[in-house]
Amino acid sequence: MTAVETTRPVRVNHGGLRFRAFWTLFGSELRVWLREPTGVFFALIFPSLLLLGLGLAIPDFSKPMVDAPPPWNEAPGVTSYLPTIIALAVGTISLTTMPVQFATFREKGILKRLSTTPMPPQNLVGVHMVINVLALIVSAGAAVVGGMVVLGVPFAADPLVVLLVLVLSTTAMFSLGLLVAARAEKGQTASGLGMLIYFPSLMFSGVWVPLSVMPEWMQEIGLYLPLGAAAQGLTMGWFGNEGFPLAQVLVLTVWTLVLFPLGVKLFRWS
Amino acid sequence: MATPQPDAGTPVVEVSHLRKTYPAARRGAGPKTAVSDVSFQIARGEIFGILGPNGAGKTTTVECLAGLRHADGGTVRVLGQDPQADPLLIREHVGVQLQEAALHDKITVAEALDVFGSFYTERADSAELLDLLDLTAHRHQQFGKLSGGQKQRLSIALALVGKPQVAILDELTTGLDPAARRATWELVERVRDSGVTVLLVTHFMDEAERLCDRLVVIDGGRVVAEGTPSALIEGLEGDRGVRLRFADDGARDRATQLLTALAERDDDVTAAVPVGDEIEVTGTRKVLFAVVQALAAADVVPDDVRTLERTLEDVFVQVTGRQYRVEENEEVAA
Fold first, then answer.
1. Where are the domains of chain B?
2. Does B240-309 carry CATH code 3.30.70.980?
3. Does any CB of chain B come closer than 8 Å to the CB of residue A122?
């Protein structure tokens, strides 16, 4: 190091520098993220493992759905479980991975440390949003490919509807995850709060009781919950025989519009 | 010292009449004034200390001047800019090492330096920095596996990676063993010698005395003393002390008689009192000469003579009227 120049500071705002720094941060965060085996397992592998495990273990899941209208009457029973597993992938990342991540950054002083640099801590949250989206693509993609290849599940009837619902589910659930992490001072607090929402959410999205046999009143409630609406919308898009999931799409949009600004507003950066 | 700068006269940091009150932490508790009136100036190229017990308002002061917290009153200028108005203006030029470790456990030393370096337009050479901070051998080690001293050194490296003009180092050596503390002190001097102005926040009296070119002592949110460590200690009122130890009781008794008589006739000697099996003689700055002459004249030879060291701790006692205790001002949890 040499003696510093005496310069009056000016705001340096090179877009290019910021952009490069963001991706440098992304690369490093991704590498560090991949070094946590438990987190990686739940975010990436758990949904596919559950799908394949149940699909192979439960006899009804391998039998064709004879009561379903063609062409679905030849598809294995597990087909109706795949959309639920995609919703599970969204829920797992947004309620177990994300809140713990963000609260831990706060707990360890990483957010505050970044506040002292030219790179605001918002970028770290942004980087992890990108990482979580990538994780979701891998996780949901693995479930779909695994279901199709191993269990013989047919592909979605309306892939674009599935994609739309998936995107909206992600925005709604990630906003919920952000809100859960907004105030927690410790990773453990955020984890507890996340779990408190995670398990009931799984129930209404058909992980414990499949949507097809879920009582009417539970489906009614599920429609208004983000992960419930996600599972229902994904199911409708996958089978394509009940029309466009308009109510579910609206519910997910409203949740996003309410939760995201709230999460951003309440989020503590130190 | 750093190369003289063209504007060496203008302070790098100016804080005047800073005030910060936090809202009540609990129902029933009143608002807590962390900083009530703090002013100081830091010149380019010096190690400036903010010294005081925990809860005195040191960290709040530093957070206000780093633009991390909004002050309720007073003004702050860092490199001529107002970090309260626009904190981003100083981010490129002020490196901060925070009290607590602030990295992922699984990030390696080299990765952390790379990432933090990418945030700045100008960046220090990583290899040089690793070398300066004695971390070259650990560059592929993960943060969570570093020792306390290594973590602190990395933390300093990250504060320097953007080639800052000012480095703020908060409670640098807390939790370090004595060897690591001394090594860290040397490092801070090397940083200053490289041209960086250092603001050192500490509750360790010895650290401030050893390292700081100038310092303020903060207590209860106010500056209670300011100056160079030696000037502050020189300015202490009251007596200096000498402790004497003798080989046997006979010699000690003779010496006690001699020195008590000396205290009565010599204005430079205030008193001679036994302390344990030693004798403590107090008086003016000439007390040592008077004692040695009196003993030499009577051919009483002490085994050991020690002048009692006066430290910043004595300065604290004098300006606050109470003993220095690190945790003194901590709020007691109800």
1. 13-93+165-234, 240-309
2. yes
3. no
Q: What is the β-pairing status of strands B32-42 and B278-283?
A: unpaired
pLDDT tens string for chain B (334 positions)?
344 444 556 889 999 999 999 887 777 777 888 899 999 999 999 999 999 888 888 989 999 999 988 999 999 999 999 998 888 889 999 999 887 768 999 999 999 999 999 999 989 888 988 988 889 999 999 999 998 888 988 998 999 999 999 999 998 888 788 888 888 898 889 889 988 999 999 989 889 999 999 999 999 899 998 999 888 888 877 778 889 998 888 888 888 888 888 888 888 888 888 888 888 898 888 888 888 888 888 888 888 888 887 888 888 888 887 777 776 544 433 3
Please give the residue of chain A at the shortest CA–CA distance from B162: A117
Fold match, B13-93+165-234 / B240-309: no
What is the ipTM, given to two decimal places?
A: 0.85
Q: Out of B106, B160, B162, whose CB is closest to A36?
A: B106
Distance from CA of A41 to the nearest CA of B (A): 17
CATH number for the domain running over B13-93+165-234: 3.40.50.300
DSSP class per residue in B180-241: HHHHHHHHHHHHHHTT-EEEEEES-HHHHHHH-SEEEEEETTEEEEEE-HHHHHHT--S-EE
Calculate how close chain A gets to B2, using CA atoms only, in Å. Answer: 7
Helical axes A122-151 vs A159-183, angle rounded to 10°: 140
CB contact under 8 A, A3 and B2: yes
**Beta-carbon separation of A118 and B119 below 8 A:** yes
CA atoms of B199 and B218, how far apart (whole Å): 14
